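The aim of this short unit is practical: by the end, you should be able to scan a pair of folded records and say something sensible about each. We start with the first protein, listed as its amino acid sequence and then its structure tokens.
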Amino acid sequence: MWSLWGLLLCEVLLPIVVIGGVQVLSKVGDSVLLAAECPPGFQVREAIWRSLWPSEELLATFFRGSLETLYHSRFLGRVQLHGNLSLELGPLKTGDSGNFSVLMVDTAGQTWTQTLHLKVYDTVPKPVVQVFTAATEEVQPPSTCQVFLSCWAPNISDITYSWRRERLMGVDVEPHSLFSNGQVLSVSLGLGDKDVAYTCIASNPVSWDTATVTPWESCHHEAASGKASYKDVLLVVVPISVFLILAGLFGAWHHGPCSGKRKRKDAVTDRVVPETENPLV
């Protein structure tokens, strides 16, 4: 009969059949079920769930017909072991991402290990869209208008941005008009686009949210409403471009002087050798 510590020692010392890692996705505040799967005919007698990364912790055990989850870990009070030996974690927190494993022993003494990778994402908040218009000297309302739409989801990472022009039956916007990984959209509007709305879609693998604006409304009310011009959007785009350029120049300068010093050193060596040989003659 296996003991609890025998199970742990078995996982370390004995050869074990292992299933490749399974990816499990969830979001903060939800509960997730880590399913324990074993081959047909494998009658589980004992099982042990552990967290492998970022810290190694004992989470739950099934031993001699008894389920136990009261182990001191970061999931204490948030873990439940079901009768089918699947492990439920929740409510989830941002730091709960990690690797987990379940070791099972059947009635014949054979072992089976399964590894799962849990990734916990934040819930995407409603994005904020700002409209930046190109300055114009025309006194009359403009017949065309160049705008930049900037989309941003606050206090969250791992976000993907995309845009949709609502009047075109949900067709996505052309990629060539996107900047800053999709966060900034450049649009040229005409008189026929007065009622056209653009929707920013902020998403991650488990959640998404949207914000919609009608940019033409900002074109002829810029001066009166204090809307930002295209010059303001440059304050966002230009620093990123300048940083990338400076990083490239610094890399080139760092390698340039090193090779230059090596060449000058070889030249000095060439001049010194003849001078040391003359007295011998």
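Turning to the second protein, read its sequence before its tokens, just as you did above.
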Amino acid sequence: MAADAFVSPFHFTRQFSRATGEPPVALKRRVLLERAVWELSTGKSVTDVAFGAGYDSVEGFSRAFSAAFGHPPSLTPADERRRWLPTSNGIHFHPPMSLWVTNAPNEQVVADPTTLLIRHDIDDTRELLSVAAQLDESQYRCVRFPGLLVESFRGPEESIATVLAHLIESKEVWLAAIDGEDIPTAAGDALPELVKRHERVAVRWLDTIRDLTRRGGWDDTLIDALCEPPQSFVIGSVIAHVLSYSTHRRYLVRHWLRTELSIAGTEIGDGDPIEWLHQRG
């Protein structure tokens, strides 16, 4: 590209980055990942998409994809919804082989606090579910705080099993309201099922956040006619509500897991977004 512009690579990169807010290599990588998620949604294999995106291995592609979208390539839903990654310049992939440039970019960048908290919540929940797998059934279901209410309308959350279930259920219920679906029926709290439910809801949750960010929908209002009487909710406050209670539940579970597993020598991180971001590189 530098040669076509009749400038040195150094000068081209500097000018390109200044104009777009993104180095050319980073922009290309991001746009190819946006193309990749679309191709996966149309049924292409992970292997074909990985090499088409310029990766030397499926493993390398999977790591980059998971870091970008918050879930592995294999969990990409089979719908051709637009899935754009955050950028300040509004340049995105547009199927099948085009670019779309938004007129007035209104997007969060990766280091935006809201984006960090949302992505950290998903990854931290995944980590806690993984650690909980080390518990036996009695430890998993042991009543630790009789009568504990996190949200009064959800009932007591007295065990690791119940708190983890409500952590996931909260997103499922609010997504159903946002997407105009029936409120999901109460599901079990067996750990293997919670892991599957978390991975499913994480994809939809992140898709919803990206869509709200792209169209500036944080101030939109949801009027829920299923409530008696009907209630209205500002979407931004809904996301803040979910994140607030999710944070409380995660640290509650983290404390209980440490109580159970400290003797066994299991190290459980602090759940610090700073450390999480460092580990992501």
